[in-house]
Amino acid sequence: ASRFQVVELGPPIEVFQLNKLCVEDSYQNKVNLGVGAYRDEHGKPWVLPVVRNMEKQMAEDATLLHEYLPVLGMEQFSAASVSMLLGEDNPVIAAGRAFGVQTLSGTGSLRVGAEFLNKHLKATTFYYSTPTWENHHLVFVNSGFTNPRSYRYWNEKTRAIDFDGLIEDLKNAPENSVILLHACAHNPTGIDPTQEQWEKIADVMEERKLFPFFDSAYQGFASGDLDKDAWAVRYFVKRGFELLCAQSYAKNFGLYNERVGNLTFVISDAACAAAMRSQLTWVVRGMYSNPPAHGARVVANVLANKQLFDQWRDHIKMMSSRVIQMREALRAELIKLGTPGNWDHIVKQIGLFSYTGLTPRQVEHLIQEHHIYLLKSGRINICGLNPSNVQYVAAAIHDAVTK
Ligand code: PLP
């Protein structure tokens, strides 16, 4: 008998299970709208040319070694990440009131930030939007947050933000609660607050002394413009909030499996930074000791060179425009077919995802009958669409809706 007999099978992770089902499906016209990664117009993963070139250059560079990085990672990388998020001339940078820590992509960033807040500020209550990225809950609970709460975000009927619900829930949140906010391109709904709505959110959070923890997994992907997509974070900084922001380079650099991320801290007193950094060193030391170098070097080198940076910005523009085109194409096809319902939300939503409003039964129908894979919530990854499959997908949605 094994001592491991006590271990029970855990539930599958929906998005990975769905991906596996799709990979194993031998149907020629299958479509993967599940996985949260960019696909090009042929449905293939895309390595950004600026990344590929940098990797080639790095492969030839004999000065690059496999020595350990410092526990908090590459300083040049973190400094560039903080500038990208806050804008390089943001006064908080010059004042020493902002610093970054290299982390294991966005997830690792959230994890380190949450553990730090739990350990050092004794934070135990956090709020996430309903719905949200399905990992937020687990990451915070594993970091010691014993009181997970949610705030309303999505109104199923109007297919828009439930803004009154959101404000009411924040007003009722206990002081010092950590409020997880999507910096842009909300996952899974694709709907962000307007600037006026962000201002009201900031008012309530200030009044109620709530702590903002931004999750920025899609900077550049929402509008194609890095500065526009950082508006909300920069606005909160301008209002004088102290905050954390988890940044991921998975999507905007296409570096999914390299685990490249940064955790930015903005604080009101520069004198606190040294102690915070020393304690962050211990958080990371006990978690994974130090981060990997490859992806961070790629990003740091691209961000540091004007010409490469411009190339990268063009890549982001290209990816985000393709997504926008596919949104329009899908909506146009559904209108052409006369599919019952209003499909305007598909083009109003931004970022990689669309919350289609399809029911679990319709989703099941799409998977079983049409080999189109999407999450039970009806979330689709728009860049799973391309000019060769968008008609097929629209016809299948039409079939599912009219069944
Ligand atoms: N946060 C959100 C909202 C996301 O959608 C994702 C990825 O899908 C992440 C964080 C973290 O991703 P990663 O850890 O791959 O950077």
Automatic annotation (TrEMBL):
Transmembrane segments: none annotated. Residues 29-397 form the Aminotransferase class I/classII large domain. It catalyses: L-aspartate + 2-oxoglutarate = oxaloacetate + L-glutamate; L-cysteine + 2-oxoglutarate = 2-oxo-3-sulfanylpropanoate + L-glutamate; 3-sulfino-L-alanine + 2-oxoglutarate = 3-sulfinopyruvate + L-glutamate; (2S)-2-aminobutanoate + 2-oxoglutarate = 2-oxobutanoate + L-glutamate. SUPFAM superfamilies: PLP-dependent transferases (SSF53383). Its cofactor is pyridoxal 5'-phosphate. One of its GO terms (molecular function) is L-aspartate:2-oxoglutarate aminotransferase activity. It is an enzyme of class 2 (transferase). The keyword Transmembrane helix does not apply. CDD domains: AAT_like. One of its GO terms (cellular component) is cytosol. One of its GO terms (biological process) is aspartate biosynthetic process. Its EC number is 2.6.1.1. Keywords: Aminotransferase, Cytoplasm, Pyridoxal phosphate, Transferase. Homodimer. Belongs to the class-I pyridoxal-phosphate-dependent aminotransferase family. In eukaryotes there are cytoplasmic, mitochondrial and chloroplastic isozymes. This is Aspartate aminotransferase. It comes from Diatraea saccharalis.
